[in-house]
Amino acid sequence: xxxxxxxxxxxxxxxxxxxxxxxxxxxxxxxxxxxxxxxxxxxxxxxxxxxxxxxxxxxxxxxx
Length: 64
Prior knowledge:
Layout: H1 4-23, H2 28-51
């Protein structure tokens, strides 16, 4: 399971990759590779979001 620091790093990396794709400076091959990396990061982040709630509705990764 991912921790909050890893999730934060993934979100920063995702934002950087999305910026590269939107710049229009990539070749088709580079763009495809980066879009694959974006999809993989989004999948990991989605898994984290789905797993952060336990059966009682309480956030298991939240401090407090």
